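seq as requested:
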Amino acid sequence: MKNTLLITVLLFGTALAQTIISTLPVQNQLNVDRETNISVTFDTDMDQSTINSNTFVIHGSQTGLHSGSYTYDNSSRTATFDPALPFAAGEIAAVILTTDITTQAGHPLLNSFQWSFTINVNNGNGNFLPANHIPVGNNPWSVFASDLDNDQDMDLAVVNKYADSITVLINSGQGVFSDRMDYLTGDNPNTIVSSDLDNDENMDLIVTNSTSDNISVFMNAGNGTFLPKADYPSGDYSSAHISADINNDGYPDVAVLNAFSDDMSILLNNKDGTFNHKTDYPIGKYPNFLASGDFNNDGYVDLAVTNGDLSDDTLFIFKNNGNGTFALNAAYETLLKPYSICAADFNGDGSLDLAVSHFFNSNFSLFLNDGHGAFERTADYPVANFHQFAICAADFDSDNDLDIAVPYMQSQYPMPIPDTVAIFFNNGGGNFSTRQNFAIGYQCRSVFTSDLNGDSAMDIIVTSADTDNITVLFNEGSSSAIHLPSETDNLLKEYALAQNFPNPFNPTTNIEYQISNAAFVTLKIFDTLGREVVTLVNKQMPAGIHTAQWNGKNARGQQVVSGIYYYQIKTNNGYMQTMKMILLK
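struct tokens:
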């Protein structure tokens, strides 16, 4: 794996100042390379034998526990983790250092510490192809994307509220979901998240059941199938939840909102994916949604909660006390009936901000962090006059800052109108001045973003409750279905794209092309279904003859199968040509 940028940054807060000097990547860093190494530097000599997979733990938000190799450099007092597999584009990686790490003198780490960073996205232009609709169960309410079968592509898990079930859709590659499995949940399931609860490098599933007043945990059998559920009590009408390592022991825990009992339940992991005990915290009326993150950069996960009662429109911040317990830290007034919430560093200052959608207001609100965990509502952005159930953040246009997606419901009377997802593009400083709208399904309830087809561009998944399906929008930088040439196609008279050589080939071939004037050139490889495999050229090129080379791998660095492939060149002055080649192994 390649090394990270050599930057040393002092950690915020003083709790670990006597033990930890710096981390790489740094806290809340954006655009981190998928193959990054992770390192931490101490201020004293450490016992190398105590730095291992149980004490230096790395979780990807969509890929789960990462294994790899650990080294310790005595001269710099730096421990480094080299992951065996790359992270997924756009996911959040969390690193936990437990107090089982000791110095050479036998003293434990003064305090546990956790930090996170976001993996970069290097493709996508923020335009999306027409919607793809995938049938699931009755009244899909929530969706989550993660690698459930350990093949390095993102699968989908969907809650079907009226069917009391979840649907698991296995990605067969490049965003095609050919395998479906359904599992029974409790009564009226609401939300679903995925997390590697037992650190076996398999992503498990956690579901809230609103009428059953509990959560259901589905442990992964190791191949993308799941064992029968285990139920754990939560509170009255469990409506939303997150999974994060709340007590810094290296294992993900669960926080659940209970809408009718007006509280939040914290379920700590027994380090095996089971939960024996919960702690409840009172909140205001009708808590709707929550987000997690280290808001004050002290090395512990905090929680943000929206209250949806019309008499109590509030955003609450719960600060982690450093041991998995919480104290109410602050309350902020929102617009009418706040609903969904997401945490991300929108202005690039190294601290997590918050974006809040509203059910009875036409705006979403941006709350910027002052760097110490205090927030200010700095802007309200108009969305529409209808309900916003969900909100999420990702770098949709691959310009190294985080954009916002807000799906909203349209009027269904007198004629139903498809819902819309509005994409608000970040100008780089946490201001969202440009917007685009894309049609989705009907009665959207949740939104998620992930690279579904392995092209390093962020796609969008939305649940459509009225039509019993989910809607997938592929980023135009991804999965661009092309028109494959037929014998009757009119080819350009001037030959500018040469036949690849050698052809057939294994594993490498060269593609030569000529342009008569300087132009922005895109050269892509597609499979026989017209799905993008990899981009070879995407930049301004001078006039002349150029050669690109393909090594038979897709955008994720995986070797593709033998068969026929097409390569297509496009320029910004309107020239396009497509040709065929054969990969033989």
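The longest strand covers residues 532-541.
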